[in-house]
């Protein structure tokens, strides 16, 4: 797999080049690359909402011919149980995507609970500074908003380290660029993000 980027809601993407790798997701990415050596032909991947875990899952099953159970806590337990067993028999990998590790689920089926507890688990963390910067630049670029380098330098110390915050920033800046019909600047971003309550108030100065 080539270098990939974690997209958020807009636009929907499934291509390898839409997934950027940083220290926040590298361990999960590297684990999925080594799927053919897994002793258990299944993996549970967790991470924050909007972290690109579903995208990574879709890319993974497309490349491996495996199966994806996204939002697995909400799936039928019998179906997940049989999918886990089939993955071991067929040696086709099963990727289970969830909010939290399986021991934290409310699993009624004992056999499923034991299997998921024995399943390797990898986690995507909240974005680091490098990933924050690249996500903002890519997502705004996808919407046709030019991003001057000084804008990213302004944003990184001031926004929350979360994928949801990145989405909020991109949405707010996109709306501002559309309403003003002009090139995005630091001053425009500061004003629009301040009005939206997105910039950290304690660090809004400067």
Query: By helix and strand content, what is the structural category?
Result: alpha/beta
CATH class of the largest domain: Alpha Beta
What's the alpha carbon Rg, rounded to whole Å? 19 Å
Element-level helix/strand string: HEHEHEHEHHHH
Which whole number gives the mean pLDDT? 86
Look up the CATH topology of the largest domain. Rossmann fold
Give the strand order, joined by hyphens, for the main sheet. Answer: 2-3-1-4
CATH architecture of the largest domain: 3-Layer(aba) Sandwich
Low-confidence stretches: 1-12, 201-206
**Could you name the CATH homologous superfamily of the largest domain?**
P-loop containing nucleotide triphosphate hydrolases
Q: What can be said about the biggest beta sheet? A: 4 strands, parallel
Give the termini distance in whole angstroms: 41 Å
Roughly what percent helix? 40-55%
Q: Strand-residue fraction? A: 5-15%
Query: Helix count, per DSSP?
Result: 8
Number of strand segments: 4
- Shape call: elongated
Can you tell me the number of structural domains?
Answer: 2
Describe the structure.
- There is one protein chain.
- The protein contains eight helices and four strands; from the N terminus they run H-E-H-E-H-E-H-E-H-H-H-H.
- The chain is of the alpha/beta class and 206 residues long.
- It folds into two domains: 16-123, P-loop containing nucleotide triphosphate hydrolases (Rossmann fold, 3-Layer(aba) Sandwich), CATH 3.40.50.300; 129-203, Helicase, Ruva Protein, domain 3 (Orthogonal Bundle).
- The chain has a four-stranded parallel sheet with strand order 2-3-1-4, sandwiched between helices.
- Helix 3 links the parallel strand 2 and strand 3.
- Helix 5 packs parallel to helix 7 (163-180) and helix 7 crosses helix 8 (186-195).
- Residues 1-12 and 201-206 have low confidence and may be disordered.
């Amino acid at each position: 797999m080539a270098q990939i980027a974690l997209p958020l809601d807009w636009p929907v993407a499934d291509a390898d080049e839409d997934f950027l790798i940083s220290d926040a997701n590298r361990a999960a990415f590297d684990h999925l690359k080594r799927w053919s050596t897994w002793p258990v032909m299944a993996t549970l991947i967790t991470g924050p909402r909007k972290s690109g875990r579903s995208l990574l899952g879709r890319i993974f099953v497309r490349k491996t011919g495996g199966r994806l159970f996204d939002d697995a806590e909400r799936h039928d337990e019998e179906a997940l149980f049989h999918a886990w067993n089939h993955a071991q028999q067929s040696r086709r990998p099963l990727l289970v995507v969830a909010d939290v590790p399986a021991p934290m689920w409310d699993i009624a089926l004992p056999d499923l609970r034991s299997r998921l507890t024995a399943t390797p688990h990898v986690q995507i963390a909240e974005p680091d500074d490098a990933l924050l910067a690249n996500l903002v630049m890519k997502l705004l670029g996808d919407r046709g908003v030019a991003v001057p380098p000084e804008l990213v330098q302004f944003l990184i110390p001031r926004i929350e380290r979360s994928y949801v915050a990145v989405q909020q920033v991109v949405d707010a800046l996109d709306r501002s660029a559309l309403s003003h019909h002009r090139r995005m600047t630091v001053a425009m971003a500061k004003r629009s993000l301040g009005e939206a309550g997105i910039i950290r108030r304690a660090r809004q100065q400067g």
